Amino acid sequence: MPANRRGRQGGGRGRHERAGAHRREETTGIRWITGRVPPYGGAMNDHPEVPVAPVQAFEPPYYVAVFTAVRTQEQDGYRETDARMEELVKAIPGFLGMDHAQTPGGLGITVGYFRDADALTQWSADTEHRAAQRRGRAEWYESYTLHVAKAERSSGFTRA
C-alpha cells in the first residue's frame, strides 16, 4: 500500500491541495490526513483545531499490513496511481480501513486493516497493485518495509 493516501467521496481536494485538513469516511473506517509538505521530507503543518482520530478497534482476529516508506523526490504519476490504488483496495471484500501518518523527516506509515487473510491476499495479488509496486520501487520509493500480522487483540479509547 503506498503511503500518502487521499480520501475522496467525489471530486474533493487531495492531500497536497490543502495543508492540514483531516477527514474520516465512516463507512469504510478510513481516516485520511490531507495536506502534507513534500513527500520526501519537510515539516508537517500542525492544525490542532482539526480533529484527528485513529481507525476504530475491530473485532479480532483480523490482519494488518504495515507499510513504512521514504519517498524519492521524483513523484511524477504518484498521486494518480495512489488514487487508483485507493479505489481498488476499497472494493476488496474484507477491507476494513486504513490509517496513515507522516513524520516531519519524511517517513510515511500506512496501516491497512483486513478482515481475513483472503482479503489481504486478494489485495496483494491485484495486477494493478503489483504494477504500482514495481513502479514504486523503480521511481517513487527510496526505501520501504512491509510487515503483515494477525491481530489477536484490539481495543480503543475516546475521551468523552
Could you characterize the architecture of this molecule?
The chain has three helices and six strands. The radius of gyration is 15 Å and the shape is globular. The chain is of the alpha+beta class. β4 (95-102) and β5 (107-114) form a beta hairpin. It has a single domain, classed as Alpha-Beta Plaits, CATH 3.30.70.100. The protein starts with 21 loop residues before the first strand and ends in a 9-residue tail after the last strand. It has helices at 78-90, 117-125, 127-140, and strands at 22-25, 30-33, 62-71, 95-102, 107-114, 141-151. A four-stranded antiparallel sheet has the order 4-5-3-6. A two-stranded antiparallel ribbon has the order 1-2. α1 (78-90) packs antiparallel against α3. Residues 1-47 have low confidence and may be disordered.
Question: Care to give the gist of this entry?
Answer:
With 160 residues, this protein is of the alpha+beta class. The chain contains three helices and six strands; from the N terminus they run βββαββααβ.
